[in-house]
Amino acid sequence: MSVLTEKGLLQPFMILPGLDVTQPFSRTTQGTAPRNHSHHRVSIAIPTHERINKDPMVLRTFAAQTFLDAGDVTSRILEVVKNFDQVDGNKVTEKVKFTEDLGLDSLDVVEVVMAIEDEFAIEIPDAEADKIVSIADAVDYIISHPMAK
Amino acid sequence: MTAQALYRNLLRQAKQVTDYNFRSYSIRRVKTGFRKNQQLQGDEAAAAIQDGHVQLEVLKRQVILGKLYPGAASVMDSPNPIIA
């Protein structure tokens, strides 16, 4: 019995509520089922109310919606920019432009955009990265990026 | 490739260097090199950019070589440097 988990790992068997996973699989079931006899069906009775909403597995399909919420993205980007060495944290708002409002030069902007890449675990191609000149640009790019985490 | 893109690509490569000491040096070298040449104009600027492209290729080769022949990991790359 294997299950594709959130991290994409195949686990040897499903961890179900009420099942003691520290014991060998066959002993925890009926007690009568001999080991290594695959023709013996082992049934585990799990009450329906336990099966619903108590399964520790989070199943997610590859078709899942993966775009991030704009509010979360904004606050995370603000935090990244505030923590940047050359930036005065009090000046940072959602509307600032890196060069005009924060006094960064073009090299600093490259570093800020790379810090944002690291935060969301993506790599922004050169053509797109050169266009990001403000917090708003960065937010727009991240919320439209399907792989941003 | 714009100067900004060159800077970005150099930093990206520098961050991929396997060895902690070479990685730190590469990142520092890219940043200080661009700061030092920031005010250059005309031919001097073009020559510096050209040199940057050469150095980018060098760095790419060094990243690959570092991955082919990794040395012992530095204690600084340990998840818990205090007790490593």
From TrEMBL, chain A:
It is found in: Mitochondrion. Keywords: Electron transport, Fatty acid biosynthesis, Fatty acid metabolism, Lipid biosynthesis, Lipid metabolism, Mitochondrion, Phosphopantetheine, Phosphoprotein, Transit peptide, Transport. InterPro entries: ACP, ACP-like_sf, PP-bd_ACP, Ppantetheine_attach_site. Pathway: Lipid metabolism; fatty acid biosynthesis. One of its GO terms (cellular component) is mitochondrion. Residues 71-146 form the Carrier domain. It comes from the Eukaryota. The keyword Cell division does not apply. GO terms for molecular function: acyl binding; acyl carrier activity. Carrier of the growing fatty acid chain in fatty acid biosynthesis. HAMAP family: Acyl_carrier. PANTHER family: ACYL CARRIER PROTEIN, ACYL CARRIER PROTEIN, MITOCHONDRIAL. Belongs to the acyl carrier protein (ACP) family. This is Acyl carrier protein.
UniProtKB/TrEMBL annotation, chain B:
It comes from the Eukaryota. InterPro entries: Complex1_LYR_dom, Complex1_LYR_LYRM4, ISC_assembly_LYR. GO terms for cellular component: L-cysteine desulfurase complex; mitochondrion. Residues 5-57 form the Complex 1 LYR protein domain. GO terms for biological process: iron-sulfur cluster assembly. Coiled coil: none annotated. Signal peptide: none annotated. Belongs to the complex I LYR family. This is Complex 1 LYR protein domain-containing protein. It comes from Cylindrotheca closterium.
